[in-house]
Amino acid sequence: MYRIAVTLLPIFFAINTLIAQQLFFKNYQIKDGLLSNYIYYVFQDSRGYIWVSSDVGVSRFDGQTFTNYNTAHGMPDNEVFSIYEDQVGRLWFATLTGKPCFFYNDSIYSENNLPFLKKCDAKGMIVNIFEMGNGQIAYCSTFKVIIIDLVKQQATELPTNEGVLTAWKNQDGSVGGASRMFGHFTHHGFKNEMPFPKLVQPTRAIPLGDTVLISTGRLLYLCNRKKQSLSQLELPIDKSNEIIFLRKTRKQLWCGTRNGVYLLDFPSCKVRRYFLSGRSVSSVMEDREGGLWFSTFEEGLFYVPSPKIQHFTTQDGLLFNRITCLSKDTHDQLWIGSESSAFSIYDGNTIRSRQIFRENVKNKNIRNIRHFTDGTTLIIGKAATLYLRNGVEKYLCHRSSDVMIDQQGDYWIALTGLYHLDQTELPKVLVTPAVLNKNGLDSLYSSVRRSRLPGIRVERIAFDEDKRKWLATPNGLYMFVDKEPEKLVLPYGTKDLEYDPGTRTLWVLTESKGLFAIRRVKLLTALISPINGGE
Q1: Which of 185, 212, 214, 184 is nearest to 197 (CA)?
Q2: Distance of CA 131 to the CA centre of its chain
Q3: How far is Cα 216 from Cα 219, in angstroms, rounded to an integer?
Q4: What is the DSSP letter of 185?
């Protein structure tokens, strides 16, 4: 089943960002397992799977892989324009030929294995599928509407004397439609209600109570059945463009066009967002987690985890695109660590970036950025650590993967072991830029000091109120107090730690066993384990 794991954890796991103009897109195409790059529709079913319909069949996405279905699996036709799920959980496919087909309990059903469906052939391209109030399915083609009752094994035909470009379910339960006229279907044929402007393909319709919103070409019309009135909405779409998809969500309207997709306020039609310029967007779907899925002609499927996710690159002010760590300071500024001893600060409007060392530090990444209550900020790197406080800038000339300052002001440094620097030793390794420039990094690297865990790489350090020191290492989670021997608390390789003083809980991120919580040295139940089949 398609799932996205949402982790509500401290800053080292997730950071809430602001709305941005530049979005992150994931593009799925044939090379990723899709049947085709020419996609008509994207849909999420009640079980969470993402379904994609195309010119050569349908694909089901579980978050990692695509499973494909076509005529080889029993479908009557490979070209599927849209997908509809009924209240029972059947997925109905809108086919080119009008032959009904649905997916249920991991099987394809068509006239090949369900003979009753032979009576339900709409004999034309399906323009819409929807469920009637009594559980019957309306299969609407360009020539007729077939009402399918699977329980009673009955098929009822609602004919029309002229072609139908779009159809929908009215508020009173009747089946509405539009071609050269606006009206509804009856057992005796199509009943005209009011004249309608000339419609051109593709045409979409959305019923809104007694009003129906209909697109044709680049135009939108509101048709009121009771008042028999017709009004045109002004759209900010170029005359050479064309609407190929409509979806209304709350007070907003998605318009997929031959040149990108618009998110409009409704009914003012003011543009809120614009996506995928230059691409033909055939459908838009918002999944349960708030992610957006766009199907396109010729370029496959695009996925945006959330339109509120911000995407920074070197074009926005970063020095490098490879990001290694994140943190937030007390002013809600975002600090971004990256490769080659570079870091950036984002204040909500602009990005300021700098490189700590420009020479002889290739591949020396920033490993962590810590902010302390006394105003000290440490930008911790494999080459050295930049110390910032009250406008003073110094360098801790010690290779580090993490640095913590205890209540006495002593420094604890993690790397190939755990190193303790007493305050009296700090002047030897905490130097000004002038001293660094004069002597160079190599001459200032401190001699190796006593290590509590000799030969074991320490990734992260955390302290609690009881003066316990917690160490994340590839061999497990260790804890010690003062001069007591270290104790192995978790025998799993540990990548990251975060201590929450409010709940007195230590969050522990392991390499392979998920997330653990420890409170007052007592291990709580593992909260998160690796998800199979999810993303």
Answers
A1: 214
A2: 30
A3: 5
A4: E
The pLDDT tens digits of the residues spanning 118-142 come to: 999 998 999 999 999 888 999 999 8
Pairing status of strand 366-371 against strand 351-355: unpaired
In what helix (H) or strand (E) does residue 429 lie, and over which residues does it extend? helix 426-429
Local structure of 120: helix, strand or coil: helix
Edge-first strand order for the sheet with 126-131 is 126-131, 137-141, 144-149, 154-159
Here the tokens at position 191 are 């009943």
Alpha-carbon span 356 to 403, nearest angstrom: 17
Sheet with 175-178, side-by-side order of all strands: 166-169, 175-178, 181-186, 189-195
pLDDT at 476: 94
Q: Helix/strand/coil (H, E, C) string of 222-239?
A: EEECCCCEEEEECCCCCC
Angle at 356 between CA 351 and CA 360, to 5 degrees: 135
Q: Is residue 456 within 8 Å of residue 475, measured between CB atoms?
A: yes
Collapsing DSSP to helix, strand or coil, 423 comes out as helix
Quote the pLDDT of residue 527. 56
**How many Å apart are CA 301 and CA 66, to the nearest integer?**
12
pLDDT tens by residue, 396-446: 888 899 999 988 888 999 998 898 888 888 887 888 888 888 877 777 776
Indicate the pTM of the whole model.
0.62
Are the beta carbons of 455 and 465 closer than 8 angstroms? no
Pairing between strand 385-389 and 392-396? antiparallel
CB 136 within 8 A of CB 129: no
Half-sphere exposure of 221 (CA within 13 A, CB side): 21
Highest mean pLDDT among 1-5, 56-60, 355-359: 56-60
- The whole-angstrom separation of Cα 518 and Cα 527 is 11
What distance in Å separates the CA atoms of residue 89 and residue 47, rounded to the nearest whole number?
A: 9
| pLDDT tens digits for range 296-321 | 998 999 998 876 656 677 878 888 88
CB-side neighbour CA atoms (13 Å) of 56: 11
